[in-house]
Amino acid sequence: LLYQSIAGRVVRGAFATPVAMAAFRSVVVLLAPGLVSAQQAGKVVAEASPKMPLQTCTQARGCETVPAAVTLDANWRWVHSKDGYDNCFSKDGWSTRFCPDGKTCAETCAIEGVDEEGYKNVYGVKAIETGVELEFVAQSGNVGSRVYVTDGEDSYHMFKLKNKEFTFEVDVSSLACGMNGALYFIEMDAQGGRGEGANTAGAKFGTGYCDAQCPHDVKWQKGEGNVDGVHGMCCFEMDI
């Protein structure tokens, strides 16, 4: 499941019953089954994904809380040389030093974790009592974010929706006109492609994104760097 905020300030989620995987975009959250991947796991910053408990409810047992969290998409994260701090990707694009091709790039570069302060101040993502809050413009000046629902550890939360109901709440009371946020399911691998190619980062670091528009700006695919941007990341998508 994915949440993405392209123009929105606060998103609060509450879920009932199991599903398969989701995503939010913009200031957003996402679910996944997946096809795409990314490189080495960074060791400079310990990942601290904001908690966002889900609930599964039945007539017989009532509602039970399921541990879950959200993790930031790999495209938003710092990518640097695995043995140092030099950028593999910057505003000017891929470093020709570390990324002359996709395979070398994935073997040479690491995707970094985000701590609690980084989520809040740099990306505008923080846990709240009822879910998660996403700011359109973070304190750092960064605009928008994309986050995915995980099991709180190393895998995306897989929603089993057949013959079930999926519910959520969004607080839009403080949003200005013209804001747009998205909540949708996409077909991502539960592990985020970890173990494929040079991908040792996986879902914990937000790898594996794809959608029905076949985006060409996804930095990592099948364990290699998408250095030339030729390949689109295509998969099934269901917008909620």
* Helix percent band: under 10%
Point out poorly predicted stretches.
5-29, 31-38
What coarse outline follows from CA principal-axis ratios?
Answer: globular
**Topology pattern, helix = H, strand = E:** EEEEEEEEEEHEHEEEEEEE
Give a quick account of the main beta sheet: strands, pairing sense, barrel closure: 7 strands, mixed
Number of helices: 2
Structural class determined from secondary elements:
mainly beta
Chain-averaged pLDDT: 83
Instruction: Tell me the Rg in angstroms.
Output: 17 Å
Tell me what you see in this structure.
The protein is mostly beta strands. It contains two helices and 18 strands. The strands form six sheets. Strands 1, 2, 3, 7, 14, 15 and 18 form a seven-stranded mixed beta sheet that branches. The model is unreliable at 5-29 and 31-38 (pLDDT under 50). Helices cover 6% and strands 27% of the residues. A hairpin with a 2-residue loop joins strand 12 (125-128) and strand 13. The chain starts with a strand and ends with a strand. It has helices at residues 102-108, 116-122, and strands at 2-7, 23-25, 27-28, 40-41, 54-58, 62-66, 69-72, 79-81, 89-90, 93-94, 109-111, 125-128, 131-134, 145-150, 180-186, 220-221, 224-225, 237-239. The longest helix is centred in the middle third of the chain and has 7 residues, at 102-108.
